Amino acid sequence: MTSKKEIVHSSLIPPLRSDSAVQVSVVIPIYNEMQSVPLLHKALHDALGTYPVNWEVVFVDDGSRDGSLQALEIIAGQDPDHTRVVALRRNFGQTAAISAGIDYAEGDIIVLMDGDLQNDPADIPMLLDKINEGYDLVSGWRKSRQDAFITRTFPSRIANWLISQVTGVHLHDYGCTLKAYRREVLTGFRLYGEMHRFIPAYAGYVGARVTEVVVRHHPRRFGHTNYGLERTVKVILDLFTVKFLSGYVHKPIYLFGGFGMGLIGLSGTGFLYLAYRKLVFGAVTTTSPIFLLSIMLTVLGVQSILMGLIAEIVVRTYHESQSKPIYNVRFVIRGEETQHGA
């Protein structure tokens, strides 16, 4: 190991922020990819070595148990100018590893990719060219995906269609980790669960300019995938959270109140039906299951509206106590000077 290598052991030290000249940070989560890491590092040098930009790669070891961290330490010692290693204390999952990498990256452009060699580093310059065209987010599309169709590709297509319909940000491949972002579109929210795949939806919500390019996808060369069909279930559950945060977080009464009004409307329909039977046929209505169901729907509707009012108070307290704006600024023009917002 060389003396240039610095290891920060305390998890309480905040992420480093400096005025370095790094323009592009490639963030790669690593979990049990010991054989892939040296080849990946070389491929990154081949792809970015001649590209006119100052770059770094931030490897985040997510609690690997196969020697990946030791391999990364060797690489960081051999290439301290371009390589940073963030070692997590245990396996926190891909989203947490990506979040850590973003926090410790110094570049104004963040490129995310997997560490299993299925994403091709040679595609990174293409993504950066699109960023230079004025886009805020460039998403990779694995058009010729080299994965098992039944367990990986087919569920992914369903999830991509569902996410596109719910969020309104239409992409062919939300699950492709290979994406490039301007740093400002990654601020203002934290990542949990499997939320890293929903970053384009968050970015689209704040007005980011999003595009998609076809990228290469290679068969896995070493080891085996850490994900299966259960991941699709997690993605669908996280989609509910994304829809709420993107559509109703500032006005939750629209969600809870709308749901409550719908329930009250259904209960009113039930009462009208019972009144019709009572007046026309003289039927006994108080013992009817419809009567009890209508009462229950009325109670649930009122409770939902009250929950919406409580949520409104919580949201207003959150924004006002932390001076959180309810808008996002792209840039401000003053005379001949242009100041970009976050």
In the sheet with the most strands, the strands line up as 3-2-1-4-6-5-7
Number of helices: 9
Distance between the termini: 39 Å
Number of domains: 2
Low-confidence stretches: 1-19
Structural class: alpha/beta
- SSE string: EHEHEHEHEHEHEHHHEE
Radius of gyration: 25 Å
Under CATH, the homologous superfamily of the largest domain reads: Spore Coat Polysaccharide Biosynthesis Protein SpsA, Chain A
List keywords for this structure.
342 residues, alpha/beta, Spore Coat Polysaccharide Biosynthesis Protein SpsA, Chain A, 2 domains, seven-stranded mixed sheet, 9 strands, 44% helix, 13% strand, elongated, disordered N terminus
Plain-language structure description:
With about 350 residues, this protein is of the alpha/beta class. The chain folds into two domains: about 25-245, Spore Coat Polysaccharide Biosynthesis Protein SpsA, Chain A (Alpha-Beta Complex); about 250-320. About 45% of the residues lie in helices and about 15% in strands. The chain is built from nine helices and nine strands. A seven-stranded mixed sheet has the order 3-2-1-4-6-5-7, with helices on both faces. Helix 5 runs parallel beside helix 7 and helix 8 packs antiparallel against helix 9 (about 290-320). The chain is elongated, with a radius of gyration of 25 Å.
Q: What is the element layout, followed by pairings?
A:
Elements (H helix, E strand, L loop, with lengths): L23 E7 L5 H13 L6 E7 L6 H11 L4 E5 L6 H11 L4 E4 L11 H9 L4 E5 L7 H19 L11 E4 L16 H7 L4 E5 L15 H18 L4 H30 L7 H33 L9 E4 L2 E4 L2
Parallel strand pairs: 1-2, 1-4, 2-3, 5-7
Antiparallel strand pairs: 4-6, 5-6, 8-9
Helix pairs in contact: 5-7, 8-9
